[in-house]
């Protein structure tokens, strides 16, 4: 099996050391950087399978690093930061991160999330019925494209997966925890903010009026369902 590469970007030596130790034990090859500019060069050279990224970095913060990476790559990005306010988490997920963990953190929980993201990234199931078509919305699971009223819409990997899972079962209500497990292959540990931000981002891209969605509906106190 090919060894998977992970880039860890953090200006705290203790954090990079702990993550390197735990991830190396799991068989991953770990590369580290302590500044934004160094991280971008490393990511360009290594082309990692996953990136763990702090926000508070020297010369270029993690948010800018994430934006730059997202211009050319859908590699899974996990923010690991001491910035733990809801608005910080929402902003990090909105600009393209797949996950957000706050410090102090559990190394074993982080490793579990890393494994889940990498499993999801490597899954390429055979799709016999690759096209989902609804009024005004077309989802091609083979080419990973989505069209709204005939125009192609750019979605992140997680947004695309969310849309597919919901659209495959119209009117089925997905509980928050169940939907999180489907998309992230991991327990949410009671924190479903990541899922809710991705739903919000998805609505902004496919709904004409995100505040009054047509396709992705909220079932209060339960979760979400797809309608058309």
Unreliable spans are 124-129
Spatially, the strands of the biggest sheet line up as 2-1-3-4-5
- Category by helix and strand content: alpha/beta
Number of helices, counting only DSSP H or I runs of 4 residues or more: 8
**Counted beta strands:** 12
Major sheet attributes: 5 strands, parallel
User: Which bin fits the share of residues in helices?
Assistant: 40-55%
Blueprint of the fold:
Layout (H helix, E strand, L loop, with lengths): L4 E5 L3 H13 L3 E5 L2 H11 L3 E4 L8 H9 L6 E5 L4 H9 L4 E4 L4 H16 L8 E4 L2 E4 L4 E4 L2 E3 L3 H11 L6 E2 H9 L8 H14 L9 E4 L3 E4 L2
Parallel strand pairs: 1-2, 1-3, 3-4, 4-5
Antiparallel strand pairs: 6-7, 7-8, 8-9, 10-12, 11-12
Helix pairs in contact: 2-3, 4-8, 6-7, 6-8
Question: What does this 3D model show about the protein?
Answer:
The protein is α/β, with parallel strands linked by helices. It has eight helices and twelve strands. The strands form three sheets. Strands 2-1-3-4-5 form a five-stranded parallel sheet, sandwiched between helices. It has a four-stranded antiparallel sheet with strand order 6-7-8-9, with helices on one face. Strand 8 and strand 9 form a beta hairpin. Helix 4 (86-94) crosses helix 8, helix 6 (157-167) crosses helix 7 (176-184) and helix 6 (157-167) packs across helix 8.
């Amino acid at each position: 099996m090919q060894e998977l590469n992970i880039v860890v970007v953090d200006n705290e030596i203790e954090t990079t050391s702990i993550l390197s130790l735990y991830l190396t034990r799991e068989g991953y090859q770990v590369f580290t950087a302590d500044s934004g500019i160094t991280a971008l060069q490393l990511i360009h050279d290594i082309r990692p399978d996953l990136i763990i990224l702090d926000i508070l970095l020297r010369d270029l913060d993690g948010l800018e690093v994430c934006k730059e990476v997202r211009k050319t790559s859908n590699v899974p990005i996990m923010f690991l930061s001491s910035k733990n306010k809801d608005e910080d988490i929402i902003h990090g997920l909105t600009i393209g991160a797949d996950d957000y963990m706050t410090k102090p953190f559990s190394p074993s929980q982080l490793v579990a999330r890393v494994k889940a993201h990498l499993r999801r990234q490597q899954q390429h199931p055979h799709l016999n019925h690759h096209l989902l078509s609804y009024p005004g919305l077309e989802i091609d699971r083979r080419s990973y494209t989505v069209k709204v009223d005939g125009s192609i819409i750019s979605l992140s990997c997680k947004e695309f997966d969310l849309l597919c899972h919901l659209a495959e079962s119209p009117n089925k209500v997905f509980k928050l925890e169940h939907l999180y497990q489907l998309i992230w292959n991991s327990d949410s540990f009671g924190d479903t903010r990541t899922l809710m931000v991705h739903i919000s981002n998805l609505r902004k891209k496919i709904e004409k009026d995100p505040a009054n969605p047509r396709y992705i509906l909220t079932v209060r106190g339960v979760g979400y369902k797809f309608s058309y």
